[in-house]
Amino acid sequence: MATTAPATSNTPAVALEGLGRAYGERVALREISLTLPPGATVAVFGANGAGKTTLLRILAGLLRPHAGRATVLGAELPREAWKARGRVGLLGHEPLLYRDLTVRENLRFHARLHGVDRDLLPSLIEQAGLAARADDPVRTLSRGMTQRAAICRAVLHAPELLLLDEPLVNLDPGGALAVAPLIGREAGPARVLISHDAGLGLADADWVLGLRGGRQAIWAPAAQVGLSDVRGLYT
Amino acid sequence: MKEAVSALIRKDLRLELRSFESVPAMLMFSLSAFVLFRFGLDRSSLAGDLAAGVLWVTLLLAAVLGMNRLFVAEREQGGFDGFLMAPVDRTALFVSKAVVLFCFLLAVELVAVPAFVVLLLGPGAGQLLPELLAVLLLADVGIAVVGTLVAALGVQTRARDLIIPLMALPLLVPVVIASAQATAPLLAARGAEAFPERWLAVLALYDAVFGLLAYAVFDFLLED
User: Fold this and answer.
1) Which residue of A2, A63, A110 is in closest CB contact with B82?
2) Distance (Å, rounded) from C-alpha A79 to C-alpha A4?
3) Burial per residue of A38-76, b for 16 or more beta-carbon CB atoms within 10 angstroms, e otherwise
4) Do B85 and A63 make contact, defined as CB atoms within 8 angstroms?
5) Phi-psi region of A41 (alpha: psi -120 to 50; beta: other; left: phi over 0)
6) How far apart (Å, rounded) are the C-alpha atoms in residues B143 and A67?
7) ipTM of the complex model
8) Across the strands, what pairs with A163?
9) Which residues contact A30 (CB under 8 A, 6 or more apart)?
10) pLDDT tens for residues A113-172?
11) What distance in Å separates the CA atoms of residue A56 and residue A44, rounded to the nearest whole number?
12) Cβ atoms within 10 A of the Cβ of A140, count?
């Protein structure tokens, strides 16, 4: 587990100030500023290429910001990224699971990296509805089952910040219900939630970040943002 | 770090046992090369410098195949991201990959060296094995260290199959020189000659220098 003390209860889960990031000449994010309180959820909306995934990867410590300041759980990125490692869970487009290993082997591997007791894994697997397929290689699983396994991988170390990119994609209604205690609001940690489902995202969030062409088009409490505002980001 | 290294090594060995992507390819390459040398040189047996050169060039080129595959699962299946988000020393990845490549080389040599003896050396070559083992171990450490460093760098590029050999082979020239010089007297036609221990020292020095260098710079290779 992380050796640093957890952020105090008042430390924002995420604080960004003029954040920018480019890939060569192409600017993916510019001038993003926000503060996400601990335990709160921000829904991030934006069309394809708006910079949502780039934002998530910066917060995960996998990309360096090129401009501005980014602080995650009190750790300034990238200088203090080591302080946040092991305290953030990422569920992205890729499941980050080895296809030739079974679900159980993958989770044991990640549990060892995070210093998590492997005895906790069976209940996690059970909770995600994966018990019957836990000893099958990931490459043999359906997309929905792979997503459930990826969710287990993202939360097994009880992260203080969850970065979720379309977390319910490929899940059937039963699957979505099964993983709700793991990644839903009741799970507890602060969440950055990328979604293309405006209704679901708004209902599940405390704050809304709207991105258009890498720029911050909306930053407001979810209660003050309407469906039409979100839909406007996609036109 | 011990726990992370152990987890990474177990994972890689398990993946290799499931997929058989690296060791069989390295082995088949070595055996094919020995057969080609036998017929290409049109000799029933080799000795001395020529035998040592054939052995080490073949083993080195086989090792490059292993380097090319070393980080592929991390790159293609998100292993880098999963590892980088864990609260572990990044050097654990370097140490584990170097150990895994070392194990792959040993596994290949376990079959390839006897095959080399049978296919390309004359009778009585079995006596040289203890000395040859020392050379193999020291050379394998050097190849594993440099190979891991280069593979980590090359896997980030689109042309990794080209970049990795282009970077690794020049860096490994000293290993080939020292290994071939140390091995040639063992493979002399008249029987084993005096074993040049100074070449073992050269190999050990190479291992130490590149081991420290790789340990120092590996962190930066994983940076965005």
Assistant:
1) A110
2) 15
3) bebbbbbbbeeebbbbbbbbbbbbbbebebbebbbbbbe
4) no
5) beta
6) 40
7) 0.87
8) A90, A192
9) A20, A67, A214, A215
10) 999 998 899 999 999 999 999 999 999 999 999 999 999 999 999 999 999 999 998 899
11) 10
12) 11
Distance from CA of B73 to the nearest CA of A (A): 7
Q: Fill in the DSSP letter of residue B159.
A: T
Residues A192/A59, Cβ–Cβ less than 8 Å: yes
CA distances to A48, A57, B18 from B11, in Å: 35, 25, 11
Residues of B within 8 A of A98 (CB-CB) are 11, 15, 73, 77, 79
Chain A CB contacts of B223 below 8 Å: 64
Q: Would you call B77 and A2 a contact, using CB atoms and an 8 Å cutoff? A: no
B22-72 pLDDT per residue, tens: 999 999 999 999 999 988 988 878 888 899 999 999 999 999 999 999 998
Q: What does the domain layout of chain A look like in residue ranges?
A: 14-91+158-234
Domain made up of A14-91+158-234: CATH architecture: 3-Layer(aba) Sandwich (3.40)
d(CA B33, CA A148): 47
From chain B, pick out residues whose CB is under 8 angstroms from the CB of A85. Answer: 84-88
Say whether B65 sits in a helix, a strand or coil.
Answer: helix
Interface with chain B: mutation pick from A91, A112, A118, highest number of B CBs within 10 Å: A112
Task: For residue B24, report the phi and psi dihedrals to the nearest 5 degrees.
Answer: -60, -40
- Give me the helices (H) in chain B, please: 2-19, 23-40, 48-70, 72-76, 79-84, 91-120, 129-154, 160-171, 173-183, 197-221
Q: How many Cβ pairs within 8 Å bridge chains A and B?
A: 75
How far is CA B198 from each of CA A136, A167, B182, rounded to the nearest angstrom? 52, 60, 8
pTM: 0.89
